[in-house]
Write a structure and sequence with these properties.
Elements lengths: L2 H33 L1 E7 L13 H9 L1 E6 L6 H10 L3 H4 L7 E2 L4 E2 L17 H7 L4 E4 L15 E2 L8 H12 L9 E6 L1 H9 L4 H24 L5 E6 L5 E2 L5 E3 L20 E4 L1 E4 L3 H11 L6 E5 L18 E5 L4 E5 L16 E2 L11 E6 L12 E2 L3 H9 L23
Parallel strand pairs: 1-7, 1-8, 2-18, 5-6, 5-7, 10-15
Antiparallel strand pairs: 2-17, 3-4, 8-17, 9-16, 11-15, 12-14, 13-14
Helix pairs in contact: 6-8, 7-8
Length: 428
C-alpha cells in the first residue's frame, strides 16, 4: 500500500469511528430522553378498590406490570384540591385551593371556576409542568386543574382550556400527535384527564352499571393510548402514571343531618352554597364570619349530631393541612362518610334527594377514611415492579415525577423517600 493509500485508509477509519461514536452517543441520548418521558393520566373518581369489583383490563395490565397503590388524598377530598396537590406536591394550605370553591378574605370573594382558572392570584406553588419548562423540558397539558394559568409568566408549551365535552378518542389522538413531533418540539411530560367515572358514580352510585360502563370507557381509551405508543415505537420507553383524586361513597335520605333545627347559617359566607339554589346537601360546609358570631354558632352546633364534627379554625386535625392564612374557614362542619349536611336559607325541610336517583354518591370526607382513598398506578422503564400494599400521600407524586424527569423540584411538602422504593434509580 502506498503512503497516500495508507493515509486515505487511516482517514476513512477515523471518519467511520467518529460516525460510530456520534451515532452511539446520539442513540444513548435519545434512549435516555425517551426513558424519561412521562404521561400522567388523571382519572377522576377512580376509587382505590375499584378493581376489586370492576374489570379494567388495560389499567390492570399496567398495574400488574408496574406498581399500584392506594393513595391518601389531600383534605378535603375534592377534585380541585387534589389534582392541584398532585401537580404541585403541596398541601392545600400552601397552594390555596382548599376546596372546589375557596373563599379568600383578602380578595373578598369566592373563586369562580369559569373566570379565575387563568388568574395567578388564586394559584400558589409551582406545578410540575412549570418546574420542567423552567429547566428546559417541553411539556403539554391536555386538561388538568391549574394548567391554564401562567405561573411566574411560564405556561406549558402546549395546553388546552378545559372542555368537559371533548371526545376522549380525540384527546388521546392529540396526545399521540404531540409525541409524534420532531424531537426538538416533542413534549417530555404530558397530562391527560378523564372525568367519566366520577360523573357516573355521582349520578348513579358506587358499583352501579353506569359506573362499570364508565370504567370500561376510560379503560378503552387508555388502551388506545397504549396502542398508539406501540405504533410510535415509544411504549417501552414511556412512563405511564395513572392517578385519581379521591374515592366515593353512596348516600341515603336516611343519612341526612338537618342543621336548620339548631342554627341559622344564612347570614354567614358559605362558598359551597350556590347562588342559584337556597338549599345544600354536602359532606362538609366551610363557613366564614365574624369571630363572635362564629363562636356562638359553633357552640350551637357542637355535639348536636353523632355523625357531624364541628371544628373552629384552631381545632382542625393536624393531618388536614388546609388552614390557608387567607382561605382557611373560620368554621368547618364535617359529616361522617356516607352522611350529608343539609341547610336551607329559608328553613325548608329536606326533600328526598338520593332515593330519587338524581344524585347517589359523593366525596369530600376525611382524607384518611378508606372510602376516600385514591388510586395510583405506574408502569414504565423508571418503575420497579412491586406488589406491596403500602400507601403514600398524593403530595409525593410531584417529587417522583421530578426525579424521573431529572429536574430540581420546587419547594414542596412531599417526601421522595416515601416513593423512592418504586423506582429503579432512586433520587436523593
Amino acid at each position: 500500500m502506498t503512503f497516500f493509500g495508507a493515509r486515505f485508509a487511516q482517514l476513512l477509519f477515523s471518519l467511520i469511528l467518529s460516525f460510530i461514536i456520534v451515532f452511539t452517543t446520539q442513540a444513548l441520548e435519545n434512549k435516555s430522553r425517551n426513558n424519561n418521558t412521562v404521561i400522567m393520566i388523571g382519572i377522576d373518581g377512580l376509587r382505590a378498590n375499584t378493581f376489586d369489583t370492576i374489570a379494567a383490563p388495560n389499567m390492570q395490565m399496567l398495574a400488574k406490570s408496574g406498581v399500584q397503590r392506594a393513595m391518601v388524598p389531600a383534605m378535603p377530598t375534592k377534585t380541585f384540591v387534589n389534582f392541584y396537590s398532585l401537580a404541585t406536591g403541596l398541601h392545600p394550605k400552601h397552594h390555596g385551593l382548599i376546596s372546589n370553591y375557596p373563599y379568600d378574605r383578602k380578595i373578598g370573594r369566592t373563586f369562580n371556576r369559569r373566570t379565575d382558572v387563568q388568574d395567578p392570584k388564586w394559584w400558589g406553588g409551582e406545578p410540575i409542568w412549570i418546574s420542567a419548562e423552567k429547566q428546559g423540558i417541553k411539556t403539554a397539558t391536555y386538561f388538568w386543574v391549574g394548567s391554564e394559568v401562567a405561573i411566574d409568566g411560564v405556561q406549558p408549551s402546549f395546553w388546552k382550556p378545559y372542555n368537559q365535552q371533548k371526545d376522549y378518542t380525540e384527546r388521546v389522538e392529540e396526545v399521540l400527535a404531540w409525541l409524534a413531533m420532531p424531537k426538538k418540539m416533542r413534549p417530555q411530560f404530558i397530562t391527560l384527564y378523564f372525568s367519566a367515572i366520577d360523573s357516573a358514580a355521582h349520578t348513579f352510585g358506587v358499583n352501579s352499571k353506569e359506573e362499570v360502563n364508565a370504567v370500561a370507557r376510560v379503560d378503552k381509551h387508555i388502551g388506545e393510548l397504549i396502542a398508539g405508543l406501540q405504533k410510535l415505537g415509544m411504549y417501552d420507553n414511556t412512563n405511564l402514571i395513572l392517578v385519581s383524586d379521591h374515592g366515593m361513597i353512596d348516600l341515603s335520605d336516611d343519612r341526612v343531618i338537618n342543621i336548620d333545627q339548631w342554627a341559622d347559617i344564612s347570614t354567614f359566607i358559605v362558598p359551597d352554597w350556590a347562588p342559584s339554589r337556597d338549599t345544600v346537601f354536602a359532606p362538609f360546609l366551610n363557613i366564614y364570619g365574624d369571630a363572635r358570631a362564629i363562636k356562638e354558632i359553633a357552640a350551637q352546633l357542637k355535639g348536636k349530631h353523632p355523625q357531624m364534627q364541628v371544628f373552629r379554625r384552631d381545632e382542625f386535625p393536624s393531618h388536614y393541612h388546609f388552614d390557608h392564612p387567607d382561605r382557611g374557614p373560620d368554621l368547618m362542619l364535617l359529616a361522617e362518610p356516607g352522611w350529608s349536611i343539609f341547610a336551607s336559607k329559608h328553613k325548608k325541610p329536606p326533600e328526598p334527594r338520593f332515593s330519587s336517583g338524581s344524585f347517589m354518591a359523593t366525596h369530600g370526607y376525611d382524607n384518611r377514611h378508606t372510602t376516600m382513598q385514591a388510586k395510583f398506578i405506574a408502569s414504565g422503564p423508571a418503575f420497579k415492579p412491586s406488589n406491596d400494599n403500602k400507601s403514600f400521600d398524593n403530595i409525593d407524586v410531584y417529587s417522583l415525577i421530578a426525579c424521573i424527569l431529572k429536574i430540581d423540584p420546587a419547594i414542596n411538602d412531599g417526601n421522595i423517600e416515601h416513593v423512592n422504593h418504586l423506582l429503579h434509580k432512586p433520587c436523593d
